[in-house]
Amino acid sequence: MIDRTEILKELKGILQDFRFLLQRNSFQILKYQGEPEPHELDLVWKENWNWGQKQLTGGKKEENAPVRTAPKEQDRNFICKLCSDRLSAIRHFLIKGRKKVLVLHYTGETQTGKPAYVKTSPQRIFRTAEAEDLFDRMIQKEFGFSMREFYYQEYPACIFSQDRSSTADWKTRVENCEVQVKDTIEKEGIQGIVLLGTSAALVYGKEEASKRMGKTFEFLPGIPMIVLRSPEAILASEQKRKSLSGKNESSEFLEAKQKEIEVKEGVLSQLKIFHESVKDRI
């Protein structure tokens, strides 16, 4: 007789594993040995598949056979093999604009113990609409056009297990992923780079990234790069002031308001310096 307790216990384990995979958007796709990876296959639609008809050409090679196409530019991180410990590649890791400025950022989770985050929309750049709205306002104010005129690239371009990653692991990943950044610079004619929050911390470490905040360097010879706070970090100061809006006369509110002004004015002044260095080239 089947033991229902054992069945329920096994089912519970399966559902717990499934929840874990859903949170991380990580599903192992099994394949036979020797088969190519699923994401490396190109599926080509043919107008006439001749279902059920026998091959009558006697082994003769079909004329006008479909030619294998290269992966889309926006999906080239899927075929990258430099980081063997990745969980998955980030879909739409590169969003193209018209102005030749590349904003490097990272929406993946890096802090141990926090739930994984996966973008659900190809149009999403940062984690929240509020962060995008804030960054758009700042770009509009300094550059005079929408933030979506810039290029945006995930750096690194893949999702990793934040609970099993060391600082050295992240350092290696961004070093490996530099090839993707250089590829975009070359193919798109990028003339300037903005390195945001999390990506900067992964490249330099938190302490060094903090020292470099607001300063301009060269990513490559002739390609200026500025290190800025992430929109989420800037948004935090705005949200703190809003949370105290009912206490407009309190010292806590006035302190939060002053902090918000300092943070935003600081970022705007940094953007102005960067704008001066690239305005004639983008």
From TrEMBL:
Superkingdom to which the source organism belongs: Bacteria
InterPro entries: Uracil-DNA_glycosylase-like_sf
Protein name: Uracil-DNA glycosylase-like domain-containing protein
